[in-house]
From TrEMBL:
Species in which this protein is naturally found: Araneus ventricosus (Orbweaver spider)
Source lineage: Eukaryota, Metazoa, Ecdysozoa, Arthropoda, Chelicerata
InterPro entries (alphabetical): DUF1759
Annotated segments matching region Disordered: 305-325
Protein name according to UniProt: Uncharacterized protein
Amino acid sequence: MDVTQLKTQRKSLRMSFTICSKSIEDELMKEAPNLNQLSIWKAQIEDKFTRLEKCQTEITNLILKDTDAKRAYEEDFLSAEKYRDRFSELCAQIQRLSMKETEIKEFSEKIKFKLPKIELKKFTGDAKEYLSFWSQFSKIHEDTSIPNEDKMQYLLQAVVPKTKAARVESFPATAENYPKAIAQLKERFGHDDLLVQIYVRDLLSMDMKNAASGRTKTDLPALYDELEAKIRALESLRRTQEKYGDFLSPLVESCLPEEILVAWERSRNIKDASEVEDRSLEKLMNFLKQEVKGEEMVELARTGFSPPANQKKKEAANKLDNYPTAATLRNKSEVDANNVQFDVA
């Protein structure tokens, strides 16, 4: 291949090298460069530079064969040196950024807070506690590195003695009995239908309590948190809002005090005529969330500039201390009487 052909090939390689280097420079200019992307581009530009250097070496060898090649060689060498310098500079910047990222990561790992040890949740046999209990104990149950005999010991430690859950103690603590004990525990307390019945009955009891109180105003944030907890529990049992919203929405509405229920109906009526009537549970819960936020903002505005409760108690105590006692009033009366006698004399 002659010099002309090699220079044509070099031109294409230099163009490809320049495009890749421009992408690297743009990424390095960002406030938070993507180190993964820079690593990919670094591998690409190393490949392009290797091929460019190979082509450059062939061109240099052909130029040096010419008897009068000094001037041509110097010009070609300076042109090639610019690409070598640019390649070295980009690689150094990427390497420096990578080292900095590693140092930051190592430093952040060193200053992590020492978290408190998680205590294994005790299960009393109350079905309402089963979901939270199993979400923790399932990590032990699914850990293949723990032998079954050890899992059985963990299970025995996780149940409260002399409760319904403690009936797993009737199984001898062996590896063979561990799956049987877990099966009994799930069958008795973790049956989905049973848990759904419990949470739905809780909603019904809230309805009855609300009806008995005459639908008077209640603590809305506490009510919302309780409703949210029960709905999330039902969702974890695969009773999602999409499938069971038509059933759950009336239950939740019946739990609301009258003024909130009126506000909910009013909010549904204020809409475009083109909108389809929607009583979805999701929209109802979003409405309650906004009502809770509004109530908390009103409470903040009402109490934001008043002194804290402790300060009020302190001020009240100071006022009491400043009131004269009976002994003080008696002493003052005696002093006044003596002064009067002295004036008369």
